[in-house]
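Exercise: predict the fold of this chain.
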Amino acid sequence: MQKLQSQGVHHITLVGAGRQTSIDFWEGVLGTDLDDARAMAEEALAFHIEGLVEDGEAIPEPSSLEGVMADADNRDGVAILVAVKTEAKKAVRVNITLAEDVLSQIDAFAEAHGYTRSGFIAKAAQRIIELEGGRKARSA
C-alpha cells in the first residue's frame, strides 16, 4: 500500500442564501472542524486518485506548501496536510504502434464513453486478459 500526501487550503466563504443556510451547506461539504475537513479531503483525494488510475493517467506530484500559500487567494486559508493510503499502482508511459484507423476508432469510442485513450486501452486489455484467462482455466 502506498501512502501519498498532498497539501490543501481550507476556506469558508459565506455567499448566496442566508448565513445559516450557507453554514449548513459548507459544514456538509467541508465538515464542522478541521479534523472533519481533513477526513473529507482524504476521502476526496483517494477518490480522485482512483479515477486517475482507472483512466490510466499518472498521479501528479503534489504542489509544495510554499507554492500553495504563495497564491494570494490562499493566504487567509488554513493549510492542512492531506494523507491518503491507496492501492494505486504507478502508471508507466509506453509507446505502442497501431494502425491509424484502429487508433481513430479507439479515440472515438473512448471520447464517446468518457474514457481517456490510456484508460480505454488499459480497460480493454484487462477485459481480454479476464476473458482469455477464463477460457484457459476452463479448457485445462
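Check your answer against the key: The helical segments are 19-30, 34-54, 65-70, 100-112, 117-139.
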